[in-house]
Write a structure and sequence with these properties.
414 residues, alpha+beta, four-stranded antiparallel β-sheet, two-stranded antiparallel sheet, 13 helices
Length: 414
């Protein structure tokens, strides 16, 4: 189940269809313009008895929302139950991947025919290949052409060769991560040697307080002393009495990482640079100093920023906090994909059947309590236009509350 309420995904799909269909938008355009701003006057023009009936309907809607919250609580309970029931299946998968178990001939016979799909697909163009997959050029005899390698590059990239003596499925989880568009862009070349030692990703649920762990298990390696790295997510299912109609189902409200115990000289989160300082006097050479600076790496995933708190007086976020909001929004997209797609359907991601942008509905920014559709849409549009910063929205708008009307908040119409 997606961590966001399914209803929000359905409305998002409908919005995408409308936006993609210019004819529909043109047909509805004039009528929609007539409706803009008319809702309030329409309600205000009603006689009081009708207004009272609408209030009664809203109370009924609150009852529905409260029952909907109980529905999601039961769904979470079912998820916990079936995650446990899936453990023998996951254990068998882990054994096959690691080479600890060789499937019998009977176990390798599929109960369905997948050759038809291959015939329909035909030859795969490189642009259509799943992320991480490589298309090999061949000569006139059909033999693969080895790509030219620049001098010194061979030390960076290890070629893994497979034959009939290869056990298990080497690099299964690395390739799966690279095939997932939402994750692939986080993986640096320097991360791959360590990710080759990733042997399993496990999901663990918690009932009270509600949440889940994503546990990355590693084999012995020269990079970290940890046997596993854990990312914990807090989940909330709660109807706000002050704003019951903003309930959107289960939402992630925060996350915590873990300390990565790096072995000496192998910390991927920092890099050493040399910088030449200016000399103190004219004609005097400057000193060359070395210092460590943060490095881009997938393993920053285990050191997430805290959920930002808006300024109490201005009810606004700083630019740094807005950066953290963007980071956390992406973090929760990754968590959603790992939890809902990668762990239960790992072989489909590995083979490129799932994992592309079309499969990734994303989680938006669910950690901001009560984020309604209008504020969410404006925030996403501003982040896309502003390089990931939701500038111009006050903290009240981000949380779906009444606009504060301060300093040009762009939510408008609150």
């Amino acid at each position: 189940m997606s961590v966001d309420a399914p209803s929000s995904g359905a409305s998002g799909a409908l919005t995408s269809q409308l936006l993609a269909n210019s004819g529909l938008m043109e047909a509805f355009g004039g009528h929609l313009q007539e409706l803009v701003g008319s809702k309030s006057s329409y309600i205000d023009s009603m006689p009081q008895p009708m207004k009272n009936r609408i209030k009664a309907l809203k109370n009924i809607q609150v009852q529905y929302t409260q029952l909907e919250a109980k529905f999601y609580e039961e769904v979470q309970a079912l998820e916990r139950k079936y995650t446990e029931l899936h453990q023998p299946t996951y254990a068998k998968r882990r054994q096959i991947i690691a080479g600890d178990y060789e499937p019998t001939e009977e176990e390798t016979v599929l109960g369905f025919d997948e050759e038809d799909d291959d015939e329909e697909d035909g030859d795969m163009d490189e642009e259509d290949a799943p992320t991480g997959a490589k298309i090999m050029d061949v000569d006139e005899n059909g033999d693969p052409i080895e790509p030219e390698v620049e001098e010194g590059a061979s030390a960076k990239v290890e070629k893994v060769k497979y034959d009939d003596t290869t056990t298990g499925i080497p690099e299964f989880w690395l390739q799966s991560l690279k095939n997932a568009d939402v994750i692939a862009e986080l993986i640096e070349e320097a991360d791959e040697p360590l990710l080759r030692h990733l042997v399993d990703i496990e999901l663990k649920h918690y009932e009270e307080p509600m949440g889940f762990d994503l546990i990355f298990h590693f084999s012995e390696n020269p990079f970290i002393n940890n046997k596993s790295l854990v990312k914990h997510y807090n989940v909330k299912i709660e109807v706000d009495d002050e704003a019951p109609f903003q309930f959107q189902g289960p939402q992630i409200t925060g996350c915590t990482g873990c300390e990565v115990n790096w072995k000496k000289g192998h910390n991927l989160t920092v890099k050493t640079i040399k910088k030449k300082q200016k000399g103190k006097g004219k004609g005097q050479p400057g000193k060359t100093i070395t210092k460590q600076v943060p490095a881009n790496t997938f393993f920053s995933y285990f050191s997430p920023p805290a959920v930002p708190e808006a300024d109490e007086e201005t009810d606004e976020f700083t630019e740094e906090q807005e950066d953290d909001i963007a980071i956390l929004g992406r973090d929760y997209e990754v968590a959603s994909f790992i939890r809902d797609s990668l762990i239960p359907k790992a072989v489909l991601v590995f083979t490129g059947v799932e994992g592309g942008d079309d499969d990734d509905e994303g989680m938006g920014l669910p950690f901001l309590d009560g984020l309604d559709g209008e504020a969410g849409m404006q925030l996403q549009q501003q982040m896309a236009a502003g390089g990931g910063r939701p500038g111009g929205l006050c903290a009240s708008s981000l949380r779906g509350n009444t606009c504060c009307s301060r300093r040009g908040c762009q939510r408008g119409g609150c």
